[in-house]
Structure formats: C-alpha cells, structure tokens
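step 4 of 6: structure.
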Amino acid sequence: MAHSLRPPFSDKDHFQGDINAPLELVEYGDYQCPHCGRAYPIIKHIQSQLGKELKFVFRNFPLSESHPQAFAAAVAAEAADRQGAFWKMHDYIFEYQSRLPLEPFEAFAKALGLDSQRLIHDMQDPALSTKVDADFDSGLHSGVNGTPTFFINGKRYDDSWEEEDLLAHLQRMLVKH
Amino acid sequence: MLQKGTPAPEFELFCTPDQKIRLSDLAGKKVILAFYPADWSPVCSDQMALYNETLKYFRKYNAEILGISVDSRWCHMAFSADRKLHFPLLADFEPKGSVARAYGAYDEKEGECLRALFVLDEQHIIQWSYLSPTGINPGADGILDALEELTQPVKS
C-alpha cells in the first residue's frame, strides 16, 4: 500500500522555503506530542543545511484523546496566522511545549508581541477548527500513522527521522533529482 | 489470509472480563477487524491510539472497529484503560489465536496475531483485507478508502 499525500501541497498550506524547491518535506504534527517536540530542532537544522533546496510544510494532526491541549494549540497557531505569525507561534509552542497545560494562549500571544485579545477572539472562530479538522482528515487519508509523520515529495517516509538519517535521505533525493 | 468476497467467519470472544461479543452482534453494521500482535508494544499502541482518534470517521460510515490480539481480557482491560481506548479489544486467548487462524492472520512462529486488517460490509462479507509488515503501523487510509468505496452509490 503506497501512502501518498492527499491532497498534495498547495499554496494554502503553511510552508517555509522556496515554493519551487526540489525537496518538499511535509510534517503532520501535534503540538503536544513529545516526539514532535524532539523533531522540531531537527527540522530547523535540516532547513538550515538544505537552504533553498527544501520547502517545509506543516499540517495539523492533533491526537486529542492522548493530548488534551493539542487541538487548541493547533487552533492558536492558526489564529496567530491571522496576525501573520503562524510560524512564530508554531516555533514558540514547540520551544515551550511543557508550558502548554499551564499557561493560557493569551500569555503565548503576549510573549510573541501579538494582539492577545484578538488571538483569543479568533480562536473562537469555527473556521479555524474546521481548518484543523481538514488537516487531520487529509492526514488520515494520506496514511498518517502517528505523530510526527513525514512525507517527502508526496510519499510517506517510514524510515528514521534522526537528523543524520533524514538529512542523508534528503540529500540522496536531491542528487537523484 | 481471507480475501475479498469471503463471508467473515463468526466468532465469540471476551471484550471485557465478564462480557463476550459475537461478530453477529454487529449485524447491519460494517465492521473493521484489526488483528495486532500485542498490547503495550510501541507500534500496536500507536496503531490503536490512531484508531481511537478515528472512531468518529468510522462511525460516519456506520462502521465499528474491533481490535483483536491473543492477550487476555485482563491485559486488554489494563491496556485499554491506560490508553483511554473507546472501542473494544477482543481476547483471542483460548484456544489461543483460533479466530486469527480462521482469518489466516496468525503468526505461528511468534504465537501472535499478524498485523492484519479486514473491512466487512453490512452483510459481514470481507470487502477489503490488508496484511501490514509487522513493524509498520498501517494507518487508517486503507480502511477509510474501503469504507468510502462501500458507501458509493451503486452504478447502474
């Protein structure tokens, strides 16, 4: 069974890097998942190693039964996007993951210099939870089997995502490209 | 392993320490059977946690999922409580693995169920089956595709 990214990347996705980069790394992630927290600095390093060769895409896959704050955190990052700060919030949540159950998102917004009232207000907008649900749905249909699950150029990546393994894999794909 | 078009063999297994469930109890519903090697193991835990998050999608298709392994009902109870699972885990415990064998989903060497998935229609005919490599969590995409296909309007 080949697991491929459905739907494929579009400019509606949250992404970093060159939209036309030869390598596309998609992460389905959960903001409260410790494995995703561990993957976060690995991805940062890989992005800095590969530069313009890599486009990194983040899609939400909150495992709400296991992680009670994961869905709200995903909505908070989507709400931050309305202030042009999706990636700031994404990074901040992963950097301070252990604070998730303790601090309100208002405090996260303030720490990032965002309009915290607006963020809290936007978090109530059903359009944002619909967006998170749509990401989750796309993950299920793509064969996401836990978090994080990675897709490289549209195909599920089942091997190790330890930094040296993932980087070596991406570099090999770049040579073939 | 039993393939598409085969009527699913009936079974009756413990789903809690004092309750049994029969396949025929789910008459009129689609059924997903997820045979898996062992409670507590990392891949099985991730797989069951994923299905736990996917229940509302399965129910949209009038489908119920049953997890099946050779672990005992008491082991299932502890595993299920620890992972907060909201669907039944069945104990194919005595005679060990007999249901898995009937479906061709038993690993004789390891003495465990294989990681095998079956999707049954409302008449409990097998409409899709998939054997996953034991070390890989198959995800839910194959199941959802099969359920979607079963729900498509019949072409005239």
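step 5 of 6: annotate
 - Chain B touches chain A at residues 46-47, 49-50, 52-54, 57, 83-84, 86, 130, 132, 136-142, 144-145 (CB under 8 Å).
 - Helices of chain B lie at 42-60, 73-82, 98-102, 141-151.
step 6 of 6: archive
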